[in-house]
Write the structure tokens for this entry.
Amino acid sequence: MNTFTCNRILLSDPCGTRVRMAIAERGEVVEEILTGEPAMESFAESASQICSRCGIRITDIESFGIAQGPGSMLGVRIASAYLSTIAKSFDRDIFVWDCLETSIYALAEKYSLLDLECAAPSRKGFLNLAVLRGGRL
């Protein structure tokens, strides 16, 4: 397993119909928000708002994490452009994860399963499917 040390990280999930964001310090969530709007309308304002609640600036964040789906690809693009610009400008790390992949591995770990199927419906009527066989995706 890969690990890293970070005192302050901003985690974001712009994939849904509302943006979920949290700031964690030394592994503990210290602030969390869930907006009433999708990332296209609210991502930058949400990042500013959560930092303000913590009494910090966006430049005080050491690392950024962003969910990449499944879900709204436009939301992911907007959030990625915003966080990538900050990360690149201030030499910060950025981490990306797939929510469905993370979920299937977490369920397999929790219930000691080697074979598992995990599905998530999309807003457009499609089905996102992750299949774990023999402990491998």
